Amino acid sequence: MIEESKLNSALQFLDTCPEAEDIMARGVESGTLLEFSRRFRALGVEPVGAVEIGTFRGRSTYFLSQMVSPEIVYTIEALRENYDYACWFLGRHTTNTKIYFGDSVDVLPRLLQHAVYNIAFIDGLHNCTRALPEYLMLERFIKRPGLIIFHDVSYVAAEGKVDGGVPRAVEMLGDLEIEGDKAYKVVT
Ligand SMILES: C[S@@+](CC[C@H](N)C(=O)[O-])C[C@H]1O[C@@H](n2cnc3c(N)ncnc32)[C@H](O)[C@@H]1O
Predict the structure, then answer these.
(1) Measured from the CB, is residue 27 less than 6 Å from ligand 1?
(2) Among 13, 98, 136, 174, fewest CB within 10 Å belongs to which?
(3) What fold characterizes domain 4-187?
(4) 71 C-beta closer than 6 A to ligand 1
(5) pTM of the full predicted structure?
């Protein structure tokens, strides 16, 4: 079972490591990361792995890596400079992360042929036409029971203005539980 003390240590590391400012700029805040772990623990199963869309510089990836250790976190990043930074940061501080460069719509179908996961975190391009298929692909292959989490569901990001963004994707799916800036679905 995931140990709370291990996760608190992970957060402490993220907030105090020399790279803290670089990885935080657009990263998920600590409270939200802890909520993920509590939600997952409520399922009463062991983590078998995680898939994340939107690595940025590796903050949430690092936390997930501690959460699922020794299992693997697969994470996808579309911007080369973020990918390069995340490879450096996660390469120094983790042993169970696999980082993929590219657009989620290209990478996910290949990745999901072999990735084993019961946690999925969607935090990439914040528009509806991207977030919705990401969710559907992740839901199809997730091990049951599994937890899928959307971040940033409480506002429409600039890139989502054309189609209603992540809030629209969550509304179309209809059966997610919304809490603050997150939406959760337990897939059974
Ligand atoms: C909000 S940031 C992710 C923050 C990260 N989860 C954390 O907490 O540290 C979103 C990231 O998604 C990446 N991104 C945007 N579109 C993407 C796509 N289609 N596929 C994969 N990554 C994408 C962006 O380059 C950016 O680094």
Answers:
(1) yes
(2) 174
(3) Rossmann fold (3.40.50)
(4) no
(5) 0.97
